[in-house]
Amino acid sequence: MNFSSITIKDIASALNLSVSTVSKALRDSYEISEKTKALVNEYAKEHNYRPNPIAQSLKQGRSKSIGIIVSTIENQFFSQVINGIESVAYEAGFNVIITQTHESYDLEVKNVGHLTHRSIDGLLISLSTETADLDHLRSLHRQGLPIVFFDRVAHDFETHKVIADNFKGGYDATRHLLDSGYRRIAHITSPPNISITKERYAGYQKALEDAGMAVHPDYVKHCAHGGRDIGEVENALNELLALDEKPDAIFTTSDRITTTTLYLLNKRQLKIPQEMALIGYTNTTLADVLNPSLSSVYQPGFEMGQKATQKLLEIILAKRPIYDFETMVLPTQLFTRSSTAPKN
Amino acid sequence: MNFSSITIKDIASALNLSVSTVSKALRDSYEISEKTKALVNEYAKEHNYRPNPIAQSLKQGRSKSIGIIVSTIENQFFSQVINGIESVAYEAGFNVIITQTHESYDLEVKNVGHLTHRSIDGLLISLSTETADLDHLRSLHRQGLPIVFFDRVAHDFETHKVIADNFKGGYDATRHLLDSGYRRIAHITSPPNISITKERYAGYQKALEDAGMAVHPDYVKHCAHGGRDIGEVENALNELLALDEKPDAIFTTSDRITTTTLYLLNKRQLKIPQEMALIGYTNTTLADVLNPSLSSVYQPGFEMGQKATQKLLEIILAKRPIYDFETMVLPTQLFTRSSTAPKN
DNA sequence: TTGAAAGCGCTACCAG
DNA sequence: CTGGTAGCGCTTTCAA
C-alpha cells in the first residue's frame, strides 16, 4: 500500500494529458511548454503529488539509499558518525539503512548481502573486529558498487577511506602518560588484525621509543571482540595485575574497553590514578562525570560521517568511473582529566 | 544497478521455461510439478538468485520494511530499543529504516512523510517532546498504515502501545529518596505534554502523598527539549538552587537531563548526595562508574523494542483489520547507588 | 510540443 | 501442469 499520494496517471487523466507529458513536465524537460509545466506542477502541488520512489528505483536501477555497516549503534562514537552521515545524505535526497555487525564476521557478510539485496546505491562500512577476509566486498566493488570505508578500514582495498589520526591518537595518549610521570604503560586494545589497532599501537610504540623505552610485550593485551564481552577485558586486566612488575598506567582503545576497564578498576577498588592511571579512546559525553573524570582521546565522529558520505556521494554521482582514491585523516582530540593526574 | 543477482527471466530462458512458471516454482506453487520446482530451485541456488525486492514492492504494494522514529539514537535507551526492534524485524524478514526527530515536531512530520513516501509497511514511533498535534499520523492511520507507539505515546490514539511502567518508575524513585531520608525532593523533567512526563510525575506525586507530603510547585521544572540543550537544564537547576528552601534531592527523567544534572552538580562542586542527592532515569551502562555512582530507574529498552515490533507485525500480517488494541506496560528496575546514600 | 509504447522484475489472472 | 499477458508507477525512446 502506498500512503503517500496520487500517481502520475491521476494527474494525466485529470488534466487530459498523457503520462509521458506529465512525467516530463514534472522533470522540467525542455520538450514541454511552459504552460503545460505550470499546469502540471500546480496540480501536482495542490494534490500533494510525490513520485513513488519504488517505481523510480525499479526503472532507474538506483534506489537513492545508502547502506551503513557499523559494529553497534549503542556505541556513541558510531551514533555520532551516523548522525554525520544522515546530515549529508538527507541533504542530497538519499536515505540510509543502518545495520550492525556486533563484531561478527558472519553478520557482516549477511548485512552486506541484505543491503545489496535492497539495492543500495553505495555502502559505508566500518569493518567488524572479526573480519579478515574481504571477498564479500571485493566482488561487489568490482561490479561497481561504490564503497567508502571509515574508522576501521582495509588498506589493501582501493577506494576512499576516512579515518581518524589513529597514530597520533595513540602517540598523544601515551606521551601524555609519560609526561605525567608514568613509566610502566600497558595497552589493552582490539584484535591486531583491524586497522585502528595497528595504527594506535604504532603511536603507542613510537611515544615509548621517543622516551627511550621499548614496548614490554606482556603489557599489550588484545580483546578478541573489542570489549564486547566483559570477560575478555577482565582477563586482560587480570593478566596485567598478575605481573611481577605491574603497570602503573593503562592506555585503552575503543569505548567498550575503556569504560569496562574503568568499571573493573573501580570494582577492584584500585585508586585511579594513584595505583593505576587510565586513558582511553571514548566518545562518551560522560567522560567528565565519570569516577574519576576520564582522560580520553576523542574522535570527530560526526565529521567522519559527513566526510565519508561526501566521498561516497562523489562516487555515486560521478559520470565516469573513479580510479583516484583518497584517504582522509581527521585529527583527534586529547582531553586530560583526573584519571591521569601527574604521578606523586 | 542491482548488485545482487540474476533475474527470473534469466532463469526462464536458461531453462527454457516461461517467467510465470519460474515465478510460481520459486514460490512453491501447487500448480507446478515437483520436477520443475527442483530444476528451477537448483538453478536458482546455483546462480545465487535473489528476488529483486524493489520489483516485489512495486508489484505487491508492500515493502517489507518498517519505519522507526525516535528522538535520537545517541541516547542509549533508544539504541537499545532499536536493537530489540531489529532482532524481531529481521527474524520476520523485515528491514528497518531509522529516523530521528531531535525532539523537533517539524522533523517528526518530515520523517513521517519521508517514511511513508518510501512505502513502509508499518511505523514504530516515540513522539518528540514538541509534538502536540497528531494529524500527521491520524490520516495515515485512517488510511490503514499500521502504527505502534512506544515509550512516548498518545493516549487518545487507538492503536497498540508499549510503554514502561512510568508511574511506578516515578513512584519508586521518589519513594527511595524518601526512605533514604530526603524530604525536599525536586523534579526536573521533560515538557508536560508528553505521556512519560505525566506518568512519572504522577508517581512522584503519589509517593509524596503517601508520605503525607504535597508537591511543592517550585520544585518541579520542565526542560522544553528534554535536556537536549544544556542551557535548559542549567536554568532549571539555577532556579532550584536559588530557592529559599533549597531541595535536598533531585529526581530527573530522561538520560540527557539526568546526566547533564550530574555534570552540573559536579561542576558546581556540590557534594552528592550530602548537599544534593540525585536519582534519575537513564539506561547508560555507565551508571556504576559515574561520580558518584548513580541511582537510577532503568527501562527495559531492548524488550520494549521487541514487544512493539511483535505488535506491529501482528497488524501488518493480519488478514483482517484489527480494532482491538492493547497497551503493554513493562516493568522498570530501580538501581540504588551512592548518589542517594541515606541522609546523615 | 505532445503522446504512444516499451520495459525495469515481479506476480497473478486466465487460457490452454 | 505450463505459458501468455497485463500491470504495479515511472522514465525514456521514438513518432507524430
TrEMBL record, chains A, B:
Residues 6-60 form the HTH lacI-type domain. The keyword Transcription regulation applies. Keywords: DNA-binding, Transcription, Transcription regulation. The keyword Nuclease does not apply. It comes from the Bacteria. One of its GO terms (molecular function) is DNA-binding transcription factor activity. InterPro entries: HTH_LacI (IPR000843), Lambda_DNA-bd_dom_sf (IPR010982), Peripla_BP/Lac1_sug-bd_dom (IPR001761), Peripla_BP_I (IPR028082). Gene3D superfamilies: 3.40.50.2300, lambda repressor-like DNA-binding domains. This is LacI family transcriptional regulator. It comes from Mucilaginibacter pedocola.
